[in-house]
Amino acid sequence: MRVAVVGATGFQGGAVARLLAERGQRVRTLTRAAEADRPPLRGASFVGGDLADPADVRRLMQGATHASVMMPLVYGTEQVRRYARNIATAARETGIQRIVYNANTRIPAQSTNVAAFETRRIAEEELRASGVPLVVLRPPVYLDNLFSPWNGPALVTEGVLAYPLPAGTTAAWISHRDLAEAVFAALTVDGVEGETFDIGGSESLTGDELASAFATGLGREVRYLPLPPTVFEQALSQVAGAEAAAGVAGIYHYMATGTDPLLMAGDGGRAADALALKPAPVDEWVTRQPWQVWSTEAS
Q1: What SS3 state is found at 280?
Q2: What gap in Å lies between CA 233 and CA 75, rounded to an integer?
Q3: Pick the CATH number of 143-172+202-265+280-294 from 3.40.50.720, 3.40.50.150, 2.40.320.10, 3.40.50.2020
Q4: Architecture of the domain whose range is 2-138
């Protein structure tokens, strides 16, 4: 395959690009960054440009056979619609054989006032309208969010796992690597065009069950601390900016209402069966991470 990866300079898209390159696929991505500021993506080539420019997106797609798409952290309705429409038009006009769209989140069945859900729903509609065969992946929450400067030190030194989901909410936590495996499968498995999959990890866990899995992986006691979404949003805004933070945090504000408590839970194995996926159990994922980098002793 020759795969145009939209979003490869981010964490999720980068995981997809790396896995594709590891498996001998040709990868190309679009970036606004100057050459000196581009992240290292072994085996990938870069096209300078912007999703807002139809010509740039067409240059990305030209010569590709497949596309892996993820929207950037923007949540303006018309901006996301324009990005998705440019991708859809370029994919159709350049003969892309299949698009895999990572919605970056689960999406409620009914419409909401949450931009993080509704803009991703709009992007999905635009891509589907292109007529190019489409597979949609809707992940829950990422384990990799917890291997971070915000969570790592507290986990390693204090045994505290703080996250903005209610303690009783079940979530099928998934790693970026297993997301990439799902994207690869959705690009290559026969008979899944037109499908939407609520992908996830191997098990659905409450906050306390997640802490227990981390305790097993880390070999120490871990307790779950439900973080107020407002606190999460304030912290994220220091890194991602207020607009992006509000967009991401909207998901957690919604989950805190209890309106749809199973939104992030497993799908009963449907996606794993259809895509032949075997996501790693949480404790195994935890064991594989170099947590010592967050240790105060190591620093």
Answers
A1: coil
A2: 15
A3: 3.40.50.720
A4: 3-Layer(aba) Sandwich (3.40)
3-class secondary-structure state, position 283: helix
CA distances from 16 to 12, 44, 110, 175 (A): 7, 11, 29, 12
Q: What is the pLDDT of residues 49-85, one digit of tens each?
A: 999 999 999 999 999 999 999 999 999 999 999 999 9
The model's pTM is: 0.94
Would you list the DSSP string of 128-193? HHT-S-EEEE----BGGGGSSTTTHHHHHHH-EEEESS-TT--B--B-HHHHHHHHHHHHH-TT-T
Question: Smallest Cα–Cα separation from 100: which of 275, 281, 294?
Answer: 275
Distances (CA, A) of 73 to 11, 79, 119, 156: 12, 11, 11, 29
